[in-house]
Model the fold of this input.
Amino acid sequence: MIRLRFSLALLAGGLVLLAALAIGAGVGETAIPPDVVLKAVANRLWVAGYPIDPIDEGVIWSYRLSRTLMAACCGAGLAVSGVVLQSLLRNPLADPYVMGISAGASTGAVAVALLGLGGGVVSMSAGALAGALLAFGFVILLALKAGRSPVMVVLAGVAGSQLFNAITSFVVARSANAEQARGILFWLLGNLSGVRWPDVGLALPVLLVGMALCLWHVRVLDAFLFGSSSAAALGVSVRRVWVTLIGASAVMTAVMVSMVGSIGFVGLVVPHAVRLVAGVSHGRLLPLSALCGAVFLIIADVVSRALITGQVVPIGVVTALVGAPVFALLLIRGRTA
Amino acid sequence: MLTAEHLGWGLRDRAILQDISLTVQAGEFVGLIGPNGSGKSSLLALLAGLRRPDHGTVRLDGTPLPAIPRRLLAQRLALVEQQAQTQERVTVRHVAGLGRTPHLGAFTPWSPQDTACVDQALAAVDLLDLADRDWSGLSGGERQRAHIARALAQQPELLLLDEPTNHLDIAHQLGLLDLVRQQGLTVVAALHDLNHAALFCDRIAVLHHGRLDAFGPPAEILTPDRLRRVFAVDAVVETDADGLCHIRYRVPRRPPMLAAAQKELARC
Ligand SMILES: Nc1ncnc2c1ncn2[C@@H]1O[C@H](COP(=O)(O)OP(=O)(O)OP(=O)(O)O)[C@@H](O)[C@H]1O
Ligand SMILES: [Mg+2]
Done:
């Protein structure tokens, strides 16, 4: 019964995701109907040879589809990371950035863009990725020294984030002119407009591997319900699971953030929202969170493009503006249910 | 079946357990008694392999615990901790179902046998009616029983219980200990109620300041002398016709500090 309902939910979610991808690729300055989107994709993938406007086809394939897929990857990756970190750290406030990853990414990006680190050869994304991983390493080291408990990890994350954010602010205040500062702020709040196929070519495999690792461990994640010593008593190799899953979340998050900036809210709120509806069993929670995160971010991206004509609102602003009220509603409903 | 050899464990500056050696036979019900802070929970954690001892070894059927893969160990040995809480919204059935974790691989689907096993465990602790209740709405005793059901669903040979009768009403205390004994498992249980220890245990281990003070059958262990030395209580121990001990406490001697404080108060 429950399994049937879950399968149906998964199927429905998959269909919604496909629809969202079609909408994401169709909406923009020139609206393109979904059937043309499908034809364009068919033309590119299977040389179907549908007679459609080559400009439309180019726009869909080269810009919008890659961008929309990237939104889906980010949404799924951040949501899955959120689920994993909330379970392992036993902290409902944990999100993918709790390990200092987004702070580190912004420092890396700023170091490249403003300080000219890497001598112009290194892209802002590469700088962000390096910064994110550096900050993550710093936080983990600090947490290990401070006593390894989940609370210590979260505290170390807070400390690391503050440190790296301070460095970012310092660099921006010292070296940026108004125009650059605006650009940096924009990047920090999330921006998908620069995404091309090579980016997707990196993000998608990282997402798939990370998700596979997490799905492999759904039972184990369930066993953390009463904490890590309880999980150990249930036969879980706690240390190995921590290293694998926290590492996977960190890498997924770092890769996404380095390409699109730190989009807030998804990793924190999507897992909670799904949990309210689908319960705490990770076998359901993980795949549904991934789907919801993907769809949510695609829609947020569409809204961010359509909200003000001729201008793109940072997607992080949209996720928060749309997500917060929805989440508030869910919380209230979940309480009375 | 379970052997501890010269176990020692401590913090950087303080030894918490010292030189503990004991052997638990298969099918035996061993009680672990001792005052607060004497090291009962710590010893159980060592016996369960959750902590590595600084000295000595724990063996299960002759194999040192670190040499047994965690999952295999959990199929044979279950632990109910003294305090285990969660903020999540879960049902009683979900909690009990966690006991199946060591028996299920990453992709082994949940089977009807697993459901049957969980049902049986829930029935054993009298929780079948509450199976779909939310964890947050449970009373302390119901939570404790759910944890025991989880451990039973693990289908272990060896059950380690840390104060299993905590929070339970008297009927459930006796019922639970009786139930545990009926399962034919090997049990090591930290207990506070000495009468329960006397009633249910085949042998009792007494911990005092992190050392094993004595280990033997209840009638040998529960002497007024030892109770006074270890627990600082005056008690009369009666042995009935079946050879079972019953302990009656005299009004407890007030700890010296408390007595002094009360005298102080009386003077004001
Ligand atoms: N992780 C730890 N850090 C610091 N002290 C500890 C730790 N674990 C145990 N102790 C100390 O070791 C001693 C024994 O603790 P333990 O929990 O084993 O006692 P206990 O016999 O179970 O007591 P109780 O009857 O209160 O449950 C206590 O003094 C406790 O403060
Ligand atoms: Mg204890």
User: Anything to note?
Assistant: Chain A has 14 helices and no strands. Chain A touches chain B at residues 92, 216-220, 222-223, 225-227, 229-230, 232-237, 275, 279-281 (CB under 8 Å). Residues 1-335 of chain A form a domain with the ABC transporter involved in vitamin B12 uptake, BtuC fold (CATH 1.10.3470.10).
